[in-house]
């Protein structure tokens, strides 16, 4: 990355910080390759805390220029106006992804707001802090359509889709993820929003060994599939995704909808459309959801793909 391009970074961060609502947001997304020389840096606003992620090793000039600019931002009128409390850099290229606090004190477990829902984050201990910000419009889509619906949330992680669905008035959600610790965080997210947990179930099992239990909870009006691109020993996207699609007809109500997601830059939107035609031809492709504008990408086929089928 190029230290000479950091003024562009700060110009964009300042512009976004001036205009965003009082919610969690990505301020700068270099990984979409829209900003030459800044491809390995992102910046997130965590409602008072600014978390800058650097994904590859940089030279001393880049790091020092970045720190000087962040220090200047912390002294600015805009920072005071936004009630800024902390600035930190997470060095994602180093083992353990250590977090370096430059200003203030880091609240590693903040509660944030997105579209009226509250989420508990965990900053600095893991590479992902508990909410994928590029999926904001996907969660909004669920929130706009889930009222009165029975929802199946596969690869639920910390249950962001589930929170959005119950907030909208879904009659029930089944969350499935092999990580029970993630599901426990999802349960906490529902409690934060004072949701009726009798409407929410949490299945901490390998999806491919749990079809009987999953089917028993159906049929579903909405199925959400948001898998990792690769999970060692449990999920390989291009091979295993099709196994899930093949099961959809027996899981869905007649008018059921499917949100199928892929976040691998090497997998195109056509993969999902063609795989669905092959494995579950009764489900027709409807449209692809837009990604949040702050996640600008020079190659739309490489960015997050959220596809709706019915």
UniProtKB/TrEMBL annotation:
Pfam families: Methyltrans_SAM
An annotated Gene Ontology molecular function: methyltransferase activity
S-adenosylmethionine-dependent methyltransferase domain segment(s): 25-309
UniProt keyword list: Methyltransferase, rRNA processing, S-adenosyl-L-methionine, Transferase
Gene3D superfamilies named among the record's database cross-references: Vaccinia Virus protein VP39 (3.40.50.150)
Record-level GO BP terms: methylation; rRNA processing
Record-linked InterPro entries: SAM-dep_methyl-trfase (IPR019614), SAM-dependent_MTases_sf (IPR029063)
Record PANTHER family: RIBOSOMAL RNA LARGE SUBUNIT METHYLTRANSFERASE YWBD-RELATED, SAM-DEPENDENT METHYLTRANSFERASE
Identification of the protein by name: Class I SAM-dependent methyltransferase
Organism: Vibrio gelatinilyticus
């Amino acid at each position: 990355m190029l230290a000479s391009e950091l003024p562009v970074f700060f110009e964009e961060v300042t512009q976004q910080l001036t205009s965003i609502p009082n919610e969690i947001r990505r301020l700068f997304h270099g990984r979409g390759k829209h900003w030459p020389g800044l491809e390995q840096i992102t910046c997130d606003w965590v409602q008072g805390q600014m978390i800058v992620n650097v994904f590859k090793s940089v030279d001393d000039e880049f790091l020092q220029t970045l720190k000087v600019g962040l220090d200047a931002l912390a002294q600015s009128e805009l920072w005071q106006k936004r009630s800024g409390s902390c600035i930190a850099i997470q060095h994602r290229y180093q083992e353990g992804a250590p977090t370096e606090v430059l200003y203030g004190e880091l609240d590693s477990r903040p509660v944030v707001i997105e579209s009226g829902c509250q989420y508990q984050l965990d900053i600095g201990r893991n590479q992902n802090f508990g909410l994928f910000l590029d999926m904001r419009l996907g969660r909004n889509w669920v929130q706009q359509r889930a009222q009165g619906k029975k929802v199946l949330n596969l690869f639920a992680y910390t249950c962001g889709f589930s929170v959005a669905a119950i907030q909208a008035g879904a009659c029930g959600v089944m969350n499935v993820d092999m990580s029970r610790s993630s599901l426990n965080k999802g349960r906490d997210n529902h409690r934060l929003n004072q949701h009726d947990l009798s409407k929410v179930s949490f299945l901490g099992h390998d999806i491919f060994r749990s079809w009987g239990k999953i089917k028993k909870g159906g049929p579903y009006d909405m199925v959400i599939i948001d898998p990792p691109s690769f999970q060692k020993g449990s999920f390989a996207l291009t091979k295993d995704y099709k196994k899930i699609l093949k099961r959809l007809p027996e899981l869905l109500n007649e008018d059921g909808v499917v949100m199928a997601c892929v976040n691998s830059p090497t997998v195109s939107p056509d993969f999902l459309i063609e795989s669905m035609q092959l494995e579950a031809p009764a489900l027709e492709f409807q449209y692809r959801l837009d990604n949040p504008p702050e996640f600008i990408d020079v190659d739309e086929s490489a960015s997050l793909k959220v596809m709706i089928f019915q």
